[in-house]
Amino acid sequence: MTMLHTVNKSPLDRNALESAITHATKGSAVLMIEDGIYGAMKGTVKSAMVSNAMKDVSFYVMGPDLKARGIDASRVIDGVKIVDYSGFVDLVAEHANTQSWL
Amino acid sequence: MADVKNFLYVNRRTPYGTIYALESLEVVLIGAAFEQDVSLAFLDDGVFQLAKGQETKDIGMKNFSPTYKALGDYDVNKIYVEKESLEARGLTVDDLLPLTYEDADDDYAEKNSIKVVTAAELAKLMDQADVVLSF
Predict the structure, then answer these.
(1) Does residue B1 register a pLDDT over 80?
(2) Nearest-CA residue of chain A relative to B59?
């Protein structure tokens, strides 16, 4: 089974997302929550980091956190799946373990 | 007034991840009552504070972004947003709240409060301020 990595910091302020991606093994998942959702945005200086990792790692982002911050779904990088709270629970259940990158 | 000072509030944080953004806005509104010369700067992740379309119902937090629109009524109408910070985040001024004020010296014409400035221009504004408050 694989790991679910959660990231709750903006990649434009901290290196939590970068570190999570570096340590995410093939087949694992990264879920961006709270300020982590800025990592799911298209057109930022950090977008390529996510796009490039997508061949090995699945990316998810919390819809309610996007909405709160005024980031429309159309701004989310193609291939990043938007989930709600029950989707978060499903991801936790589907993976062997969860690691939070705070 | 003899003792008017030039205050610059520097905002560098995201709106909901920490309390800084809300605290800054509250201090600005309190400070506005003292009739000082107030400017606001938004740079780094602080530019996200002004993102339009914020809807916080689903995360159970107060959406304080409409309050920025009231700043013009408190004569807080010098709002500087750093160009480099917007660009690094794939944003343009069109992605931000439309902040305006009524210019008493120009027949109360509605004018834009937001001015996009370069990092070099912002550095000068910081140097020129009498008081810098960082959030």
Answers:
(1) no
(2) A64
Could you report the per-residue pLDDT of A22-33, keeping only the tens digit for each? 999 999 999 999
Q: What angle do CA A38, A3, A22 make, to 5 degrees?
A: 55
ipTM of predicted assembly, 2 dp: 0.94
Closest approach of chain B CAs to the CA of A24, in angstroms?
Answer: 24
Domain A3-101: which topology?
A: Hypothetical Protein Ychn; Chain: A, (3.40.1260)
Q: How do the domains of chain B map onto residue ranges?
A: 6-134
What's the CA gap between B89 and A87, in Å, rounded?
27
Chain B contacts of A71, Cβ < 8 Å? 51
CB atoms under 10 Å from CB of A47, counted, come to 18
Q: Could you give the count of Cα atoms lying within 13 Å of B35 in the half-sphere of its Cβ?
A: 4
Contact indicator for B38, B28 with CB cutoff of 8 Å: yes
Whose structure tokens read 């991801």?
A: A91
Low-confidence ranges of chain A (pLDDT < 50): none
Percent of chain B whose predicted confidence (pLDDT) is above 70: 99
- Residue B34: band (very low, low, confident or very high) from pLDDT cuts 50, 70, 90: confident
Q: Which residue in B52, B88, B89 is closest to A70 by CB distance?
A: B52
Q: Is the CB of B59 less than 8 angstroms away from the CB of A68? A: yes
What is the CA A3 to chain-centroid distance, rounded?
13
CATH topology of domain B6-134: Hypothetical Protein Ychn; Chain: A, (3.40.1260)
Cα-Cα-Cα-Cα torsion B51, A4, B20, B38, nearest 10 degrees, comes to -30
CB–CB of B83/B120 below 8 Å?
no
